[in-house]
Specification:
This is RNA signal recognition particle. InterPro entries: Dimeric_a/b-barrel, DUF1428. By secondary structure, the chain is α+β, with helices and mostly antiparallel strands. The protein has a domain of 78 residues: Alpha-Beta Plaits (2-Layer Sandwich), CATH 3.30.70.
Length: 116
């Protein structure tokens, strides 16, 4: 059964091009090591909810946009193996000039139950 890692990230609008470049590099590395899908989406219609919302969840600032992304793997076991390789790859070492605040990133692994 497939497995999905999901992410919600606040990205400063001024750093969107740098984020896109990082995402393309990350896509190449993840896919090289066995991910079966890699999707990055920039928020377009993401309302600020009264109680909960994507903007509230990441403490979105006025000069930021929400990015929603996910990576698909063949299985949880595949995901664990792929991520171990990715984290050891020198291309993915932390950059002091990351184009987003990783402390406000939300992420987790999910088991799909419906896929159409």
């Amino acid at each position: 059964m497939p497995y999905v890692d999901g992410f919600v990230v606040p990205v400063p609008k001024a750093k969107l091009d740098a984020y896109k470049a990082l995402a393309r590099k990350a896509r190449d590395v993840w896919m090289e090591y066995g991910a079966t899908g890699f999707v990055e989406c920039i928020g377009d219609d993401v309302p600020h909810g009264r109680l909960t919302s994507f903007p509230r969840a990441v403490q979105l600032a006025e000069d930021e946009v929400v990015v929603f992304s996910w990576i698909v793997y063949a299985s949880r076991e595949s995901r664990d193996a792929v991520n171990a390789k990715v984290m050891a790859d020198p291309r993915m070492q932390p950059d002091p000039d990351m184009p987003f605040d990783g402390k406000r990133m939300i992420y987790g692994g999910f088991v799909p139950f419906l896929d159409a």
